[in-house]
Amino acid sequence: MRKILLGSHGKMASGLENTLRLFVGNDYPVTSISAYLDSEDGYLDEIDQFIEGIEDGDEAVIFTDILGGSVNQQVIAKVFASEKKIFVISNMNLPVVISILLHFEPLSDEVILTLIDECKIQLMNYEKTHANETEDDFFG
Amino acid sequence: MIESIRVDDRLIHGQVALVWSKEYGVTHIVVANDAASVNDVQQMTLKMATPSGIKLLIKNVADAIGVFNHPKAQETKMFVLTNTITDALRIVEACDTVKSVNVANVGRFDRSENKVTLNSCLLVNPEEMNSLRKLAEKDIPVFHQVIPSAAKVSVSKLI
Known about the structure:
The complex is a heterodimer.
Chain A: E1 2-9, H1 12-24, E2 30-35, H2 43-52, E3 59-64, H3 70-82, E4 86-89, H4 94-102, H5 109-118, H6 135-139
Parallel strand pairs in A: 1-2, 1-3, 3-4
Chain B: E1 2-8, H1 14-24, E2 28-32, H2 40-49, E3 55-59, H3 61-68, E4 78-82, H4 85-94, E5 101-105, E6 116-119, E7 122-124, H5 126-136, E8 142-144, E9 153-154
Parallel strand pairs in B: 1-4, 1-5, 2-3, 2-4, 5-8
Antiparallel strand pairs in B: 6-7, 8-9
Helix pairs in contact in B: 3-4, 4-5
C-alpha cells in the first residue's frame, strides 16, 4: 500500500488533504499534520505514528510544506532514525501529491524526480498556442 | 478505439487531466465541441489543462466523428470529452468503437429553464434528457461516475 503523510505549519496540509479528496475520493491512505496551531502540539507524535504504521511491502511518502522548515527538519530526523525507506518531498503542491499518489508503477527516486518535474509551479504564458494538431500529428 | 466518452461541462479540468487519464492509461484526448473548435482562448486553456505526454485534438463534433472513423483510430487508445449528452449521443450513433459513456457533470452552467435534477452533478434540460434516454438504450455501459473511486451508477437507474 502506498501511504502518504502531508505535513505543514498551520492548515496547509489539512487543506491540501481536503482538496485532494475532491479529486481522488476517500479510499486512499492519506493523512495530514497541521503543526503549530496551538502551544501544546502533538505533531511529533503524529509523525512517529505514521512511521510506525509503515509495514513491509508499503511504500511511504511524506510531503512537507517548505524546505528547511521545522516540520521538514523533524520529518527528516525521524525518518533517518527509523531506518525505513521513506521518500521525503519538500515544497509540496496539489499536482505532485496527486501524481505520486496515483502513479501506477513502484516509486523510486528516478520516478519521483520525473513526476516532480511534470508538476512544477509555472508562470502561465498567455500567448495563443495552437492546440489544434492535424490528424496526422495526432496519430503519428 | 474510444476507451470512454466523458460528458463534462468543464471538458478537460483537474479531475479529468490528472485522475481519469491515469485511470484509463490513455495517450490521446479528443475534445469534441463545436464552440471550442473555433475559440482560440478556450483551445489555449484546454491545452494547458492537458497533462504532459498526452496528445490533444480539438474538433467540432462532425469532424471528431471523422477522426474516430480514421483507420489509425482503431489502434489508438482515446479518451473523448463532450460537454453535452447530445454531442455524446451523436458520436455513439456514428461510431461503433465507443466502449462506454460516463455522464459525469452536466448542466452546472446551463441557464435554461425546466431542468431536472438527477443528482448533485446532473442538471438536465429537456433536450438533454431526451438524448440521455436514447443513450441509455444503447448496447454499451452508460454510467455516472465523477471520480474513479466513486461508485459507478448506471444512468438507467437515474432517469
